[in-house]
Amino acid sequence: MSADTAHMIARRVRRTPIPAGVAITDFDPLDREMAADPYRYYRALLAGPPVHFNQSRDIYILSRYEDVRAGARASEILSSADGIAHSRMRADNLLTVDPPGHTAMRKRAQPAFTRGALQSWQAVIERLCQEHTAALFSGQSVDVVKTLAEPLPTAIIAHLLGIADDDLAAFKEWSNETVRLASANVSLSGLRQAGAGMRAVGRFHEYFSRKLKRGELLNEDTVLGRLVANSHVGQLSSDELFFFCMLLLLAGNETTTNMLGTLFLTLSANPDQLRLLQAQPELVPSAIEEQLRFYSPIQGLYRTARSDYDVGNATIPAGSRVLLLWGAANRDPRQFDDPDQFRVDRNPTGHLAFGSGVHLCLGAHLARLEGHTVLREIVDHVDGIEILGEPRWRTNPTLRGLEKLNVRLTRRHTAAQTASLADAPV
Questions:
Q1: Helix (H) or strand (E) holding 53
Q2: Three-state DSSP state, 310
Q3: Tell me, what's the pLDDT at 305?
Q4: Beta strand 301-305 with 321-324: parallel, antiparallel or unpaired?
Q5: Cα–Cα distance, 158 to 175 (Å, whole number)
Q6: Least packed by Cβ within 10 Å: which of 166, 202, 212, 372?
Q7: How far apart are CA 268 and CA 150, in angstroms?
Q8: Exposed, middle or buried, 231 (CB in 10 Å: 0-12/13-18/19+)?
Q9: For residues 243 and 13, which has the higher predicted lDDT (pLDDT)?
């Protein structure tokens, strides 16, 4: 046994002194079984004290709504600079930079993602949503993940970037490989997946560098064009624009995919809520907020305590890794009545699915627009959703979503169609 291996084992079995007021937990966010179905474990965390500690992972866990929200807003103490996944990994991007650097980065990116900015893209986004959703209405078995939830966000991002139709097939292929970086785990298959993702990043870099060198992708109706036009701190480099594109793919793609895929699962299990939406379609925006709360696309992100951090009567020591569990916070009965019930008229606007504080999701308006449009198509055209076979969940500990969901949709008849059927000869 090498000295390095012995040191790693010693670290793994070493017991850290547990501060007063902290409870030991067996909940392991990296366990595949727990990651696939975490909500039953969240109930135990929420019923216990505010701070839990997993000894094998050496992490402190916050699960209550008020504590998670406060932790997300305490960026001066709970830092993102060591990375937001379990493993510590520093990177110079919007997700993992603290203020004041984060403030400057966000100020550059913000103009492209305001509600006003998205209005100019709304018509084409709605068209793409309608085109991708229409493929579900054949009455046949269809995998909503492969047909809608995965390709739709990629198609929309490609449009926002100004990717030409001739390049769309390659863009989608590279996007699929790049997005899988977010789901890679420490295993042989995970390393292969990460390798494929890194090769796709290299192809993206070559593609964008070539295009930007020619002055392409910078039209006034593209995201990058707007970033350049609204830059008040000097010219943005090609690398800065490229890394923004990567952020858009990784942060805006997988999360929307997870939201759209689980939407069908939720409506199938709650047909009464689909009926309520058909009777009151003005509840569609509220229903999307409830879906985001109910099945949070991001289950939790990590921070590092720069100094001692107090939560209730417990103190998390400086240097500790802290997991903020968005998914648990969004099911906290202290904040939401009957949190395990899906109610489209709840309108839980304070949910934490998009985070909180300085790192509030930049693409929240875009995700909502996609969700609203897809749900309106379901409300208008679907009478029932039948799940075929067992849903297959991804086991990524951070991004929780479906890998496969076969459904059969029953078409909804309009009043005119129903009258026509009634008058038809038997």
A1: strand 51-54
A2: strand
A3: 97
A4: antiparallel
A5: 10
A6: 166
A7: 20
A8: middle
A9: 243
Question: What are the angstrom distances between the C-alpha of 259 and each of 113, 190, 266, 389?
Answer: 19, 23, 10, 20
Q: What angle do CA 99, 102, 108 make, to 5 degrees?
A: 140
113 DSSP 8-state letter:
G
**Is residue 48 within 8 Å of residue 18, measured between CB atoms?**
no
pTM: 0.87
Res 228 pLDDT > 90? no
> Where does residue 368 fall: left (phi above 0), alpha (psi -120 to 50 degrees), or beta otherwise?
alpha
pLDDT at 308: 97
Amino acid letter at 306? R
* Cis status of the peptide bond prior to 151, with omega within 30 of 0: no
The DSSP-derived string for 211-233 is HHHTTTT-STTSHHHHHHHT--S
pLDDT at res. 13: 42
Mean pLDDT of the chain: 85
pLDDT for res 424: 47
Greater confidence, 55 or 174?
Answer: 55
State whether the Cα torsion 328-331-333-334 is positive or negative: positive
